[in-house]
Design goal:
The complex is a heterotrimer of chains A (233), B (129) and C (1040). Chain A is 68% helix and 0% strand. Chain A is mostly helical. With 129 residues, chain B is mainly α. Chain B is 59% helix and 0% strand. Chain B has 3 helices and no strands. In chain B, helix 1 packs antiparallel against helix 2. The longest helix of chain B is centred in the last third of the chain and has 32 residues. Chain B starts with 8 loop residues before the first helix and ends in a 13-residue tail after the last helix. The mean pLDDT of chain B is 84. Chain C folds into 3 domains: 127 residues; 278 residues, no CATH class; 356 residues, no CATH class. Chain C is 71% helix and 2% strand. In chain C, the strands form 2 sheets. Chain C has a 3-stranded antiparallel beta sheet with strand order 3-4-5. In chain C, strands 1-2 form a two-stranded antiparallel ribbon. In chain C, strand 4 and strand 5 form a beta hairpin. In chain C, helix 12 packs antiparallel against helix 13. The longest helix of chain C has 32 residues. The model of chain C has no long low-confidence stretch (mean pLDDT 86). Classes of the chains: A mainly alpha (233), B mainly alpha (129), C mainly alpha (1040). Chains in contact: A-B, A-C, B-C. At the A-C interface, helix 1, helix 2, helix 4 and helix 7 of A face helix 1, helix 5, helix 6, helix 7 and helix 9 of C.
Chain lengths: 233, 129, 1040
């Protein structure tokens, strides 16, 4: 009982705190601060039509590096945490047979999903989306595959290779930025190209591709570990 | 007290965000099943993300992508036409972080269940005082 | 110069690549990780060196090709270089230590570890608040994963509690950050500082949210249950990293946020820190699990560091020195202790006795514990000193009391643990191997503590005056500790003679007296040490440490040097005392009383420095600010060393249980350090000044009562050494009483007693100690008739008890006579009466001592004992010669003493006429008395010899009484319960009231600790409730 009162008090105080914050919110009518700068100069300095991309990959690229790292760390931890013992590897997961609709739909949809994911991250600098979104879409495809066939063997070798190479590639591009251009992760290591074209905005498509592949690989890895951990029971 | 003329889309989504966060906190503090606690975290994460995005709202403006619906020549100042792109970048990161943490928490939940065959949070107090 | 971004790039590059490189094997990937970490350490070191010694200015690192606030930037300034160097160094050493565990878990674990260290670096360097958030998330996830290096359900549930707790904290953090962006339009910390965020509308709430998250990351008390669990549940090597590396980074984060939060937060931060420091250490008292206890200690130390941050504006330019001094000591020592706990693998505190199997580990453990508490020569000593001085100067005495209280709590459990290690039962023979890769990091951090202690002392102009030479000598002896006693003893004695020879011209007469007592007395006591065959490991370094401290006190020209010597002396004597067979609890209470006294002295020095610009010792002569408190604290502090009533309970055990040649060192020599302190204090109070007359009046009463109780308690002892110990308490009571009179004669009497006590107590302890070595028992009723076997011992004891009791012609009479005169002239009749009554009581136990041991009938098991060892006889008889000279020609010593005392008390001295001394009420001639008594004795003795030449010798059992013939010696022994009648009459005075009082205090504190720690119920959700409740409470406190 006392506990409930305390929790109620806590939530009320937070509500009051949030209300204070809410009260100081006024909907804005224009951009100020760094947002204004990005809006005015983003297109010509970075060359990407998608301003959010230019912020994510170039201006605040260091944050993105951190973001990728978090996923990487989470995936690595799950890898060693959920590691199976040798003799469990060969077990089969018993489950109800998956329905035919699911299996058929999966066969049709999975390649499309992969394609769509690749499209999203390649065009990250032009349309909404980017590496993370694309990678997540690819991973959705993998999830669908697992749901359709719980015993599917996913080729972890490929996943590891893709993950490593994209990761190292990302860091190498960043270092090129340091050597060839203005700073770590600067995208002007190649020319900015024509605005709005596929090969524009310097290194951004390259970086986003690396990110997309890496994220896709990592999430697939996590899903794979979840899948295999069912063999433990 | 709250004038509906000034009650914009930004206000509404901000309020929604706050409500979700409070709901999430409530869930974290009261639910006993570990999976429900993790779900509560997801709700709170969703709340925060909505909050972040709504802070970027500028009345009447559109998405920060320089294409057909805004003036499309490179080099032209688009600051009159778009909403704030920075919160959108921040929320991207926040979503990914939330995903990573949730994945980890679920892995923990799996292992905890394997160890003690229960998901009740009160049963996991091995270390104390 | 390598740009700092390579710290990140290297770690990530290597980390990502390892995913495929692991086909080359885990040793390869492990080596890669070590290589990456060493490169990162190199970068930090390069910057640290350039920024500190080459006067390079701080460097900003830009990313993305754009300048802040449009892109994220990092800063590598001087503080950042130190912090990242610390993080990378401990990361590297930790990776060496954890090499096998990480390898076993696989290359994924190795990579996560590398990334954790990298993320901590970014936390320190980044200047963007959202970037800070991202990398703290990386840190949290990485820690949550690495907790799992330790297998088992406990670590899984600890990890889960950790991840949910940090998720809640980061939620709050994120809300604060986005609103900060909303109201300012930027995410750059330097911009926040520039525009002074808290002045914006809504700025205070935003700052509150950000600040409270940074605070919660540091695990403040009591919202830290989740934090304690990870210390307990993780693998020991990883707990070390959490304790050392992540706290450094988190504290730096707090520092950055405080930069823009506004000065109004400083007070709250300091308060939060103080509550954490005291609370966490209080809870540490009841722990019996090693890692959990170390966890409480870690959180406590972090609390102290938070307090220092809160005071950084007040501490001004000393703030970095203080902060880094304590941080470095904590960081190295905690890592070392956690690492040791991983090697020894004893999870229960009492099981640590197995560390004794490899004694060198005991040295390491001692190093770390002493560094944590703040003993010299470690950095924390200098830092704590400066902290106390500066805080008192600015009027924050209450905070000082809080800091010292928390430190005392920490000392209690750490020393109790150390006691278990040194003296606990080592019956459990669980073997442990010292793995090479685990012990190297421990050695590195231990040695670093010593080296850094030296260098940090040089950094600050005030602290660089410390004389490290005696310590160097101690280190030398330590290095040759494997040699036999003969060599070490000789080197030690020669060293001390040489040192005395070089130092004595520099000392004034006052100090010269004490130096003779300390060093010459020490040499004599060391001679007795030749008795030991073998190596006597661990004795010589600590004995010399004590002497180094003692001489340091006398050579001190500043209060810092005095305190430095005082602490060294305490450390050395602690180790000497704990060597006794049953000394574990006595050594602990000795240490705690000594520490409490030392803290009182420290505070008093702080008060004395108010308004002064130097720390010269002369500042105690003229204390401007609350002088009564300062002098009282000084006196209380010194009285703990002289074991005056109320503060005496540690002495009987400590002195009685010590080894035979240690007891004279501690009883005859060490107590005089307290006397010296009292003398200095009284000089400081000023002779003519009557404003402290109440204080000295109280002191006089204390002295008199101590004399009474001490002597009375000695009467009822059956243990010979305890009897002597209580006698010391009583004698020191006389000395304090004499000094308290603040007249020339009083001081003369007190000094005479001091010199005399040194001589006859040394003789007594040496002799009795030697006898105990022969008969193997302390109890007097088990001895008897030893005069036949040990005539030399008998004569020595006889002479010294005559001297102690004050019977003419020996030197004790001089003291008594002077005291009589002084008391009458001063007018303190009642106190004087008590003092003299105690003197009479002294006869009782002195008689018991000599008659029980030497007279009476010889016991069966002692029929074959030999005379006491020649190595004891030598110093004993040297001292006897000294006593006789003093008795025969007292003016040799008393006249120079009188001259010296005249500078403080010009009037009322003795008038000398040849060998005759006169005062206004009487006269005395020492040599004449000796001659007269000698003649009387000779006449009586020869008459007795003449009369008894025809006496019949009777064998031991040839007696009959009450119609019974005795068959065993015990039944004829007069000594057992000899003073039963007196016990009935006066025994109530020596009931252990004071011991009970201290026991009660200890129990209350422990019970509070046991009660409060119940909030850590182990339930993760409860811990979350604590966290948010903490936010609520701080919200109310701050916004009202």
């Amino acid at each position: 009982m006392l506990k409930n009162i305390i929790i109620a008090v806590i939530l009320i105080v937070f509500a009051v705190l949030f209300f204070d914050l809410f009260m100081l919110y006024e909907a804005r009518t224009g951009l100020t601060g760094i947002a204004q700068y990005y809006a005015q100069n983003g297109a010509k300095e970075v060359g990407a039509a998608n301003l959010v991309t230019s912020i994510v990959v170039t201006y605040r690229g260091f944050d993105t590096l951190g973001e990728v790292t978090i996923l990487f760390v989470a995936a690595s931890i799950i890898s060693f945490f959920l590691k199976l013992k040798e003799n469990d590897e060969s077990k089969n997961i018993s489950s109800k047979d998956t329905t035919e609709i699911l299996v058929t739909a999966s066969n049709v949809l999975v390649p499309v999903i992969f394609l769509f994911g690749i499209y999203v991250f390649i065009n990250g600098h032009l349309t909404p989306g980017g590496g993370f979104q694309g990678g997540a879409i690819i991973a959705t495809g993998v999830a669908l595959m697992i749901l359709a066939n719980p015993n599917i063997k996913i080729n972890t070798q490929i996943i590891h290779w893709v993950e490593s190479i994209s990761g190292v590639g990302y860091v190498v591009v960043g270092i090129f930025g340091l050597i060839l251009a203005g700073g770590f992760l600067d995208n002007k290591i190649t020319g900015l190209g024509e605005f709005g074209a596929l090969f524009s905005a310097g290194a951004i498509p390259i970086i986003y591709s690396f990110i997309g592949l890496k994220v896709g690989a990592e999430i697939s890895n996590i899903l794979n570990k979840y899948q295999k951990s069912q063999k433990n029971d | 007290m709250i004038n509906t003329e000034y009650f914009t889309l930004g206000h509404i989504s901000l309020l929604l965000g706050f409500i979700l966060i409070i709901v999430g906190f409530w869930g974290i503090l009261t639910q006993k099943n570990i999976v429900k606690i993790i779900l509560a975290f997801s709700i709170a994460d969703a709340g925060i993300n909505i909050l972040i995005v709504s802070l970027g709202y500028v009345i009447g403006k559109t998405a920060p992508i320089i294409d057909g619906s805004v003036v499309q020549k490179a080099g032209i100042d688009v600051s009159d036409s778009i909403v704030d792109p920075v919160p959108q970048a921040l929320v991207l990161t926040s979503i990914v972080i939330g995903f990573g943490v949730t994945a980890l928490m679920l892995a923990y939940a799996m292992k905890l269940f394997t160890a003690k065959k229960t998901l009740h949070i009160n049963k996991f107090n091995d270390l104390k005082w | 110069m390598v740009t700092p971004i390579f710290i990140v790039a290297t770690a990530l590059g290597v980390g990502f690549a390892i995913g495929v490189l692991n086909k080359f094997g885990r040793n390869f990937t492990g080596a890669l990780v070590l290589a990456a970490l060493s490169f990162m350490t190199f970068i930090s070191f390069q910057w640290f060196y350039a920024l500190t010694f080459n006067n390079l200015s701080e460097a900003y690192v830009f990313t993305g090709g754009f300048k802040p606030p449009f892109a994220i930037n990092l800063l590598m300034g001087q503080y950042e270089s130190i912090a990242t160097l610390m993080i990378n160094l401990i990361g590297f050493l930790g990776a060496v230590y954890l090499y096998k565990s990480l390898k076993e878990r696989g290359s994924d674990a190795q990579v996560v570890y590398l990334i954790l260290i990298m993320a901590l670096n970014v936390l320190v360097m980044t200047r963007d608040i959202f970037n800070l958030f991202v990398f703290s998330e990386i840190t949290s996830v990485a820690i949550a994963g690495l907790i799992l290096l330790e297998k088992g359900t406990r670590s899984i549930s600890a990890g889960f509690k950790y991840i949910i707790a940090t998720s809640v904290i980061s939620t709050i953090f994120l809300i604060g950050i986005v609103f900060a962006y909303f109201i300012t339009g930027t995410l750059n910390i330097d911009d926040f500082i520039g525009i002074s965020l808290s002045t914006y509308k809504g700025g205070t709430i935003v700052v509150f949210l950000i600040m409270i998250s940074a605070v919660l990351e540091l695990k403040p008390f009591p919202a830290n249950g989740w934090g304690i669990d990870i210390y307990e549940a993780s693998e020991a090597g990883f707990s070390a990293i959490i304790s050392a590396a992540t706290t450094t980074a988190s504290l730096f984060v707090l520092y950055k946020i405080m930069a823009f939060a506004g000065a109004e937060w400083n007070y709250y931060i300091a308060l939060i820190g103080m509550i954490t420091f005291i609370g966490s250490n209080l809870l540490g008292l009841k722990q019996d699990n090693t890692r959990r206890m170390l966890g409480y200690s870690s959180i406590g130390q972090v609390g102290l560091l938070i307090t220092i941050l809160g005071f950084k504006d007040i501490l001004g330019e000393n703030a970095p020195f203080i902060f880094f001094g304590i941080l470095i000591s904590h960081y190295f020592a905690k890592a070392g202790l956690f690492w040791l706990s991983g090697i020894i693998n004893a999870s229960n505190l009492k099981a640590w006795s197995i560390i004794r199997k490899k004694p060198i580990l005991l040295f390491l453990m001692g190093t770390f514990i002493f560094a944590l508490i703040g003993f010299p020569p470690f950095p924390s000593f200098f830092a704590k000193w400066t902290l106390v001085m500066d805080l008192v100067k600015t009027g924050n005495i209450v905070w000082v009391i809080g800091i010292l209280l928390g430190s005392l709590f920490e000392a209690i459990y750490l020393f109790r643990w150390f006691g278990y290690a040194i003296k606990g039962d080592a019956e459990k023979t669980e073997e442990y191997k010292i793995e090479f890769h685990k012990i190297i990091p421990v050695w590195i951090v231990a040695l670093s503590l010593y080296v850094l202690g030296y260098f940090i002392a040089q950094y600050n102009e005030f602290t660089s005056v410390i004389n490290f030479i005696p310590l160097a000598f101690v280190a030398l002896i330590f290095a040759i500790d494997f040699m036999p006693v003969l060599i070490k003893n000789t080197i030690a004695i020669i060293g001390m003679i040489f040192y005395f020879y070089t130092i004595y011209p520099q000392l004034d007469n006052l100090r010269l007296i004490f130096e003779v007592i300390f060093l010459i007395g020490g040499i004599l006591a060391l001679i007795a040490g030749y008795l030991h065959k073998g190596k006597r490991i661990g004795f010589y370094p600590v004995a010399l440490l004590m002497y180094a401290g003692l001489t340091g006190i006398l050579e001190a020209k500043t209060t810092l040097e005095f305190f430095y010597g005082w602490e060294l002396m305490t450390a050395g004597s602690y180790f000497l005392i704990i060597r006794g067979k049953r000394s574990m609890t006595h050594a602990l209470s000795y240490m705690l009383f000594s520490l409490a006294g030392a803290y009182a002295i420290l505070t008093a020095f702080g008060i004395a420095s108010v308004g002064q610009s130097t720390w010269s010792l002369s500042i105690i002569n003229n204390i401007q600010y609350i002088p009564l408190w300062a002098y009282s604290l000084l006196i209380i502090g010194f009285l703990t060393k002289t074991a005056s009533i109320g503060l005496h309970i540690w002495l009987p055990g400590a002195h009685a249980e010590a080894e035979s040649d240690v007891s004279p060192m501690v009883s005859a020599i060490l107590l005089k350090a307290g006397v010296f302190g009292i003398v200095l204090t009284l000089i400081g109070m000023g002779a003519e000044n009557n404003q402290y007359s109440e204080l000295v009046y109280v002191l006089g009463w204390l002295g008199a009562i101590t004399a009474l109780i001490g002597n009375l308690a000695a009467v009822f002892q059956e243990d010979a050494k305890r009897l002597l110990a209580y006698s010391s308490i009583g004698q020191l009571g006389y000395i304090v009483f004499g000094f308290a009179m603040m007249t020339h004669l009083g001081w003369l009497a007190a000094f005479t007693y001091t010199i005399n006590h040194f001589m006859y107590k040394s003789i007594l302890f040496l002799t009795i100690g030697a006898v105990v070595l022969r008969v193997k028992t302390h109890n007097m009723y088990e001895m008897g008739g030893l005069i036949k076997k040990m005539p030399f011992a008998f004569i020595a004891v006889l002479i010294s008890i005559i001297a102690l009791s004050g019977v003419p012609p020996l030197s004790g009479f001089a003291g008594k006579w002077l005291l009589y005169n002084a008391v009458i002239l001063k007018g303190w009749y009642l106190q004087g009466a008590i003092a003299f009554f105690s003197g009479i009581i002294a006869f009782l136990y002195l008689f018991k001592l000599i008659s029980s041991i030497f007279l009476g009938q010889l016991k069966d098991n002692h029929r074959n004992v030999k005379e006491i060892s020649i190595w004891f006889i030598i110093p004993i008889y040297i001292l006897i010669v000294g006593l006789m000279i003093f008795a025969a020609k007292p003016e040799l010593i008393l006249q120079p003493l009188g001259t010296m005392i005249s500078q403080y008390f010009p009037e009322g001295g003795l008038n000398w006429n040849g060998g005759m001394a006169t005062t206004s009420i009487g006269y005395w001639h020492g040599t004449h008395i000796m001659i007269i008594v000698g003649i009387m004795f000779a006449i009586l003795f020869s008459w007795l010899a003449f009369l008894s030449r025809k006496a019949q010798k009777v064998k031991q059992f040839n007696i009959v009484y009450s119609g019974e013939r005795p068959f065993t010696p015990e039944t004829t022994h007069v000594s057992y319960n000899i003073f039963a009648g007196y016990n009935k009459a006066l025994g109530f005075l020596v009931l252990p009231w004071i011991t009970d009082f201290w026991t009660l205090t200890t129990n209350i504190v422990h019970d509070i600790s046991g009660f409060v720690r119940r909030i850590y119920s182990g339930n993760g959700q409860t811990y979350l409730t604590h966290i948010v409740l903490y936010v609520v409470v701080i919200y109310f406190v701050f916004f009202n």
